[in-house]
Structures are given as structure tokens and as C-alpha cells.
Amino acid sequence: MKKLILLFGIIMCVIACKSNTDTSPSTTPTTSGTTYDITVIKDKFYSSSSFSSTATATIEGNYLVIKTNGTPDHKSPYYSSSDSRYEVYNGSNTSFKAAPNTIATQNLTFRIPLNPKEASSKSSTPMGPIGVSLNGIPFFNQYAAGGAKLSGEINGFDQYGGHPQMQGQYHYHVEPLNLTAKKGTDAFLGVLLDGFPVYGPKENGALVKESDLDAYHGHTAKTAEFPNGIYHYHITSTDPYLNGSGFFGTAGTVSQ
Ligand SMILES: [Zn+2]
Ligand SMILES: [Zn+2]
Description:
With 256 residues, this protein is an alpha+beta fold. Helices cover 11% and strands 21% of the residues. The chain has helices at residues 2-23, 177-183, and strands at residues 55-60, 63-68, 108-113, 131-133, 138-139, 162-164, 170-172, 188-192, 197-199, 202-203, 206-207, 218-221, 230-234, 253-255. Strand 1 (55-60) and strand 2 (63-68) form a beta hairpin. The longest helix is centred in the N-terminal third of the chain and has 22 residues, at 2-23. Residues 199, 203, 219, 221, 232, 234 line the site of one zinc ion (ZN).
């Protein structure tokens, strides 16, 4: 009888141990369903008193809140010619043609999810701000007004890659050249409204190829700020430049 009880005990233990290993979670992380934490990027946003440009980042509940007056921390032919921040166009585009707009101070508040994850159904990006750079300038998507290609508008981009729209809101559709000159072409440059970070055109010393990126213009890889890997967008030199067919995650909001 004692032997029987012992045998029964051994069998129960074997069953319990087996089922225990079967239900333990997989140790291989998968992209879909992964929730990230972007708290680490909060302190990367900066203001420049000499240029009166502001970008402040705080955490409010589950949101990273970035407030900015939207004026660039670099010179531009789009500052009023009487402004000390004015600089005549000196870039490399021989077809440059200034648009008749002047940079105006904004009052922008971005509320960005602190714990982004892939959206089960993706949304296209709106016209207007779709994200914000470290120097507090809105990122816009790959379209000009009316959903037209940027090919015409691109000749109005100043020597730092930005321009103001009709209401004077300065923005980047392409690489923010002053920022990559300062921080590096592989650097963390900002974040889109869905909470996924934006990096420059290079990674691991080489230009990122369009074929390395998915339909949303991003991929999952390790970065300096996220050594365990995170989904992120790259700004490249060819259309669609920053975002492809929409947000990878679920967009927060921007008020202006
Ligand atoms: Zn534009
Ligand atoms: Zn990457």
C-alpha cells in the first residue's frame, strides 16, 4: 500500500511538472502585441533660449506631453528679414524658390502614448503635425496640400529641410538637417504621434534602405535609446521620407 501511494505521488508530480513547463511563457519576444515604454526619450527634447524656441516634455498619466512654440532653433530664410534668426538661402538646391510664408510662433501640445504598441488596424496619417522633433518642430507626412506629391513643395524647403505653411507653422517633411548635423545621421530625432521614435537615415554606419523598412516606413531593431529593441521609423532621402502608409501604432493627439 505504501508503495502504491509513493507511485501515485511520483505520477502526480510528473504530470504537474510537465504541465508547468507547457504553460510557461515563451522567452522569444514577438513584435505584434509588444508594449513598449518610451519614458527614456522624455529628456531628449530641448529648448534654445537664443532662438526663443521651446520644447518641453513631461509625463501626464499614460502620456508623454510635449509643448512647443514651433519656432526652429536654427536660422531660416523664412524668419522675417528683420529678425536676427533670418538667413538667406545657402543650401544646395539650385531650384530653391522661397514660398511667400513667414515663420509664426505656435502653441502646440502633443499628447503621445507612453506605452505604444502595434495597432490591430492601422490609420493613415493626417495632414498637419504627425509627430514632433527634438527641437519642437512638427513632422508632416509625405504629401503637400490636397494629397499631392511633395515634388513641387520640396523646392521651397530651406537649407535645414523645413518650411512654414500658410499660417506660418514651420515643419519638416524630410530630414531635419540641422538636427542630424548636431546629433548625427543615425540619431534619435523625435517621435510620431503613435509613440514610436524616429531615427535618421543611417543605422550601424550604413544608410537604411527602403527594402529594410515595412509599409509604415519602420522596423524593429535595437537602438541606442532602446537596447532591447523597439519598433521605430527612419527618415530616408526618398519618398515617402518619414512615414509610409500610416501609423504603426495608435496615434495620440495634437492641439494647436
Ligand atoms: Zn509642408
Ligand atoms: Zn532602424
